[in-house]
Amino acid sequence: MYIWCRRLTLFVIAFATWISQVSMVFSQEELVETPPGKGYFIGYLLTIMMIALGVATICRPGRRAEKPKMVEQQLRHKLDQMSGS
User: Fold this and answer.
1) What are the contacts of 45-48 at 24+ separation with CB within 8 A?
2) Residue 75 forms part of a structural domain
C-alpha cells in the first residue's frame, strides 16, 4: 500500500511539472493578447496545487508514528522474558 501511494505521489508531481511546462510552451506560441486579469490563473492554480500536495504529503500520518510504539512494546516484552514474569 505504501509503495502504491509513493508511486501515485511521484506520478502526480511529474504530471503537474509536465503540465506547467506545456502551458509555458503554449503560451509562448500564442499571438493573441490575453486580458490582464486572466493571464496568471493557470500558474497560480498549479502553484497552489503543488503547495497543497506538499503539505498533504508532509502532514499525513505515516507508519513512522507506529514504529516507536512497536519498539517500546518489544523492549517491554524482552524485559519481561528476561525477568521471568
Assistant:
1) 46/16, 46/19, 46/20
2) no
**Number of domains within the chain:** 1
Question: Which pTM was predicted?
Answer: 0.35
End-to-end CA distance of the chain: 38
Domain, as residue range, for 6: 1-29+39-63
Residue 55, domain member (yes or no): yes
Residue 5 identity: C
pLDDT digits (tens, 9 = 90+) for 3-56: 778 888 888 888 888 887 776 666 665 566 656 666 677 888 888 999 988 888
Grid cell 528476561 in the structure block, residue: 82
